Amino acid sequence: MIVVLTGGTGGAKFVQGLMHVVPACELTSIVNTGDDLRWWGLHVSPDVDSITYALAGMLSRERGWGVEGDTFQCLDVMRRLGAPAWFQLGDRDLALHISRTEKLAAGKTLSEAAAEIAEAMGIESCILPMTDDRVETQVQTAIGELSFQEYFVRERYQVAVKGVRFEGAENSKPAPGVVEAIRDAECVLIAPSNPVTSIGPILAIPGIREALMKTPARVAAISPIVGGAAVSGPAGALMKTQGLAVSAEGVACAYSDFLDVLIVDERDAAERAAVERMGIELRTARTVMKSDADKAGLAWAALEIARSAAAVER
Amino acid sequence: MIVVLTGGTGGAKFVQGLMHVVPACELTSIVNTGDDLRWWGLHVSPDVDSITYALAGMLSRERGWGVEGDTFQCLDVMRRLGAPAWFQLGDRDLALHISRTEKLAAGKTLSEAAAEIAEAMGIESCILPMTDDRVETQVQTAIGELSFQEYFVRERYQVAVKGVRFEGAENSKPAPGVVEAIRDAECVLIAPSNPVTSIGPILAIPGIREALMKTPARVAAISPIVGGAAVSGPAGALMKTQGLAVSAEGVACAYSDFLDVLIVDERDAAERAAVERMGIELRTARTVMKSDADKAGLAWAALEIARSAAAVER
Q: Which residues fall within 8 angstroms of residue A205, CB to CB, at 6 or more apart?
């Protein structure tokens, strides 16, 4: 089984790439749920949704989130009814949130809901939310503490950030199957997601970081930082709050206790020495994903690199 | 204030007519909620929705329910997710249910939710759900007891009916303002709605029938039965289960303890003697509403008749 830890748009693109090079039934995605929010009374799980749509071939290419070709009729009326409208749910997209909310209200867990939805959509690949417990990423900013979506979508990450915390993480546990998937994986890939707010919440769940340290599988991460800046989104500003350099080295640092190999863009090969000083192998690939071919190419390279990497002795 | 008791598509059409002849702020609709259902985890209130859409100028002409020109993208995905799809919610329509459900979850009553939604939509007319309590119309049929929507929509009223009951009615009370509206009305109109399952639930709420008996206002009903059959829907079969003739006389009988005047189609003028024997004045009008002009014409006639009717001495 190929296991990928993922969150955000970079993670969804990487999973789209993996679909081209790994049989669906051999891929397990462990997905960030720190961005989840209650919106219009519905339980929205943006990263789980994106991976679900990616695996179902429905993810919007243009937006990178939601359903390709979706309409926004309901949103129009919600706006008219005075509801907040800064977080946009499409009409087709709504079905997932309505269905999940109904399942949760019936007493099912988030991972049971995700599995049922995936099965109904004909997805053969396994989607595991990181936890069934409520863990909320909170971003400390110049205008106060915000939920991740308030910071990312409402404020378009234009406010200064001071810190990040994962509310509820310390008392949470990994969803069923998460630790086992990491333990039994052929290799574990960390998607080119934001290390702080996409992968960070996953690592904050007690037991997951330990599973990554203990697994006999190679653990390979793809750096979302290219040429000293994030490919997209606020990863740079968020990494700084954690004392991490906005560089491949900073990414290696975030994962240094469990990572075997870091895959960086060809432009960042000069960081080899700094990364290898942490005992982490550095390999290069074309990491910027624009076309389908880019995605598949990166997925292919990541798999090859992970399979051929040496285990780090710790 | 003109007060109308309403439910179903006939009621919504009649309210559309009233909008042409009564200033919005002088119209109060008391609406059946016995058809309400929990659907996909959302609180759907079909008759309140129809009146809301009618008053907002959004009611679908073609379907007689839901929003004009609505799309069904969410429904498509819900179907794919394995959700039941026999009750169809459009994408624009969904906003009302999502909004209402959220308000109810926040502790608001059904009538508060209805008022807030109406205000947000710019409706100046007053919409009063009959009760804030849960009252559910149950139809006893050859295939067991069904909720009204199961009988009406899912089974398309093609199963034999044996009886009707209003679960929860005996312990319910009228929503705030209902009894006062009837008491203080200039006149009360009973829409050409199904007397058993649209008006029947309203009359089953303790205190409403009494208010209709006591009000100094004239109470006028428009018969939904024309030429011995319902204009639309299952009113005929349902009236039979209540021992009511499927005729103007049967409608008069259902309302005999509070009605001053029954307005029947010109084709039913021959029932005058039978209706007047109950002490109820019979007047004729063109009661079948196809065009906007039909609706306005009937509303105009009903108002004129109610205003000029003599009070029945009881």
A: A130, A131, A135, A169, A172, A173, A174, A178
Position B106: which residue type? A
List, for residues A122-166, the tens digit of each pLDDT value. Answer: 999 999 999 999 999 999 999 999 999 999 999 999 999 999 999
CB of A154 within 8 Å of a chain B CB? The answer is no
Chain B touched by A78 (CB under 8 Å)? yes
- Give the per-residue pLDDT at B312: 66
Beta-carbon-side half-sphere exposure of residue A306 (alpha carbons within 13 Å): 25
For residue B108, the Cα-to-chain-centroid distance in whole angstroms is 23
Say how far apart CA B96 and CA B84 lie, in whole Å. Answer: 19
What token pair was written down for B147?
Answer: 């909720």
Q: Does residue B98 contact residue B133 with C-beta atoms inside 8 Å?
A: no
What average pLDDT does the segment B112-127 reach?
Answer: 98
Residue A145 in 3-state DSSP? Answer: strand
Q: Does domain A37-129 have CATH number 3.30.930.10?
A: no
- Among A175, A147, A264, A181, smallest CA distance to A4 is for A181
Handedness of CA A142, A145, A149, A150 (dihedral sign): negative
| Contact check, Cβ <8 Å, A70/B73 | yes
Chain B, 240-259: which have a CB under 8 Å from a chain A CB? none
Confidence of residue B231 (pLDDT cuts 50, 70, 90): confident
Q: For residue B77, which residues of chain A lie inside 8 Å, CB to CB?
A: 67, 92, 94-96
Task: Note whether B95 contacts A81, CB cutoff 8 Å.
Answer: yes
Q: Where in chain A are the domains?
A: 37-129, 136-167, 171-308
Q: What is the mean pLDDT of chain B?
A: 96
Strands A42-44 and A136-141: unpaired
Are the beta carbons of B71 and A91 separated by less than 8 Å? yes
- What CATH code would you report for B35-129? 1.10.8.240
Summarize pLDDT for A198-246 with one digit per residue, the tens. 999 999 999 999 999 999 999 999 999 999 898 888 999 999 999 999 9
> Which tokens sit at B128?
């009063």
Does the ipTM exceed 0.85? Answer: yes
Taking CA–CA distances from B123, the nearest residue in chain A reads: A81
When pLDDT is cut at 50, 70 and 90, the band that residue A314 belongs to is low
In chain A, where does DSSP find H-type helix? 8-21, 46-56, 73-80, 91-105, 110-120, 148-149, 178-184, 200-204, 208-214, 235-241, 248-254, 272-276, 292-308
- Domain A171-308, CATH number (from 3.40.50.10680, 3.30.1330.10, 3.10.310.10, 3.30.70.1150): 3.40.50.10680
Instruction: Indicate the pLDDT class of residue B309, thresholds 50, 70 and 90.
Output: confident
Q: Pairing mode, if any, of strands A229-230 and A225-226?
A: antiparallel
CB atoms within 10 A of CB B120: 17
Chain A contact for B81, CB < 8 A? Answer: yes
